[in-house]
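Morning. Coffee machine broken again, so started the prediction first thing and wrote up yesterday's gels while waiting. Chain of 308 residues, entered below exactly as on the submission form.
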Amino acid sequence: MSTRSGIGIDCGDHIIGVYCHYDGYPDGVGKILQVHYREPTKVVALLNLGDISSLDQDIGEKHPGSDRPKGSTTFYGRDRGETGTAPRTFASREDFRQRLRDAGVEYVYLATSEDSGYEMRWEVSKPWGRWRSLEDVLEHGVDVLVEGHPDEGPDLVVDHASGQPGTATLRVGSRVGREWLANATAQHFAEVPPTVSSIRTTPHDLRGYLDRATRDGLVVDQLSGPARLPPDGSDAADIVVERHFMFGSPVLAVRFQTPVALDWAKRNKHPDVPGGDDGLWACHPQALQAIVGARREGLVVVVEGESK
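Came back before lunch.
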């Protein structure tokens, strides 16, 4: 299975690392590293051969990429003749994870020297999460990566009771959480500062944030139970259409409340429809037909006064 991972060694003032394409989960690549790659010289020899297609218990000899001997590792350069696969140098652990994160890696493994100097100690992390002992993860399960330990606080805290009904506050609880939230919000709101400590969000957006945080290995704590929704559901909607009368004529005000909705508005706004840059359209009732398309794309649309 193509579960991507990164494998590196901590050299003190820098990291040397490579990419590994297959079986990157702890029961795959992780178990092989923990059992078969504890000797420092073997770890260095593995990394010196560059990016890995498929890791196995032995480094092995050069072989055709499509005809891998049992127990041998297949390298993109040595065995498949590809270029640009040499090991890379990273400035720090976070630089290592950042650049692998951009490549879609799901797990990151790092070898550090034991006090004895005769064996390597392996650590593992999700793209944003905390580093854990690989031995601990293999013993207790991969959930250790996202559940945390009793003596550690959460990376993110969800408070459903704060703010207006129908919203929740997502707060940072650690340095990792702060970096993650700044990165996640910057993809939708360019003006969000890197020091952001909390955001108020709708249940629709909150689900997306929490799904991503879990995938990235963050520890999340939820307070106060499920979110409270207003009777008409408007605060949980992506788009709210409000009906107004101006000078005796019906007018629609269309509010786009979530990043998904704002993106939809930018792609679908008719040039004759006023507004839109600040998340609000002012338009004639005929423009309501455009909102039907948003519903077809799965956005939650609430129309004031609309019969259920």
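Confidence is low (pLDDT under 50) at residues 224-235. Going to sketch it on the whiteboard this afternoon.
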